[in-house]
# Entry
Amino acid sequence: MMQRLFFQWRYWRGQTPWDTHVTPPEVTAWVAQANLPRGRALDLGCGSGTNAIYLAQQGFETVGIDFVPRAIERARARARAANVTVEFRCADVLNPGAFAAPFDFLLDIGCLHNFGAAAQTRYAANARQWTKPGATLLLYAFFPHRRGARNWGLARADVEALFARAFDLRHYADDGKSAWYEWQRKQDASEK
# Structure
């Protein structure tokens, strides 16, 4: 609850340093090298929609989810201005409601690392449920650190423990403070 209030307050005040309005080069590089037909994409913790809009512009049928109403309002306005169709949902990424079909691509730039252990486990189960075999999960997360009175972030071993059962780690890169993970959903249906 406090986390939700924190983010709502920051959007209300216009203090959103994480919302750069620039799609990270890791995302644009993945889209450029992903020699596959464009399918369905889900942007978890989409904020004001920068990356969801970019994915829609690249031909993905895109859904963006964030629990901050002001962020979703901005995302919808930005999508209209860019003349692209994106389904934006104001919802909790752990319980966003049903989806029409599984996704080919999940994007998380800084959402998972904000959750506690139980929510992280639920998130990983949702990622497995929401994707079809062969789908990609591109994840950015901070390494563990203390911010105020709270611990934040995930070690690589923690991320691998969450996803290795249903996903194969295809690429990993870190800068000592954070990391990008490219996971591919396993083909084997028996891992459920």
Q: What stands out?
A: The chain has a mean pLDDT of 88. Residues 69-82 form the longest helix (14 residues). The CA atoms of residues 165 and 191 lie 7 Å apart. The radius of gyration is 16 Å.
